[in-house]
């Protein structure tokens, strides 16, 4: 009986050792999987962070370019507007001058016609 008991205990001991070895192997595999997953996630995070920084830098450059273009466009617009307004003022002054000349010429012509009419009227009476 003792022999039987010893054999069974040894078998159980062997089975338990095998179970322990199996569980240790499983634990080692899961630990390795966790480490690989953690490493992979860390690598992905760094890649995403790098991509995000590149995109941010690109967008910041684009913003600077657009600000520069806006400033140039605003400057060009201001200059064109100034030139346009100066041209319009010159043309308005010219139109006013021409109107004054026309008024003067109209008055002169009217005066000449009145003199001529007076002369004809005097000649017709004589």
Description:
98% of the residues lie in helices and 0% in strands. The chain is mainly alpha-helical. The longest helix is centred in the middle third of the chain and has 124 residues, at 2-125. 0% of the residues are buried.
Residues in helix, %: over 70%
Distance between the termini: 180 Å
**Parts with pLDDT < 50 across at least 5 consecutive residues:** none
What's the alpha carbon Rg, rounded to whole Å?
A: 53 Å
Question: What key attributes describe this structure?
Answer:
single chain; rod-shaped; 126 residues; cilium; mainly alpha
Describe the structure concisely for a colleague.
The chain is built from one helix and no strands. The protein is mainly α and 126 residues long. The mean pLDDT is 95.
Task: Tell me the layout of helices and strands.
Layout: H1 2-125
Organism: Batrachochytrium dendrobatidis (strain JEL423)
Keywords: Cell projection, Cilium, Coiled coil, Cytoplasm, Cytoskeleton, Flagellum
Function: Component of the nexin-dynein regulatory complex (N-DRC), a key regulator of ciliary/flagellar motility which maintains the alignment and integrity of the distal axoneme and regulates microtubule sliding in motile axonemes.
């Amino acid at each position: 009986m003792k022999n039987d008991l010893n054999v069974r205990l040894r078998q159980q001991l062997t089975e338990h050792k095998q179970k322990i070895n199996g569980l240790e192997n499983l634990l080692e595999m899961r630990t390795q999987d966790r480490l690989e997953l953690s490493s992979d996630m860390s690598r992905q995070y760094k890649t995403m962070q790098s991509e995000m920084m590149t995109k941010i830098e690109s967008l910041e450059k684009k913003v600077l370019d657009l600000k520069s273009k806006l400033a140039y466009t605003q400057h060009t617009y201001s200059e064109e507007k100034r030139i346009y307004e100066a041209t319009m003022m010159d043309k308005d002054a010219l139109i006013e001058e021409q109107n004054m000349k026309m008024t003067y010429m109209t008055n002169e012509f009217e005066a000449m016609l009145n003199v001529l009419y007076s002369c004809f009227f005097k000649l017709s009476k004589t």
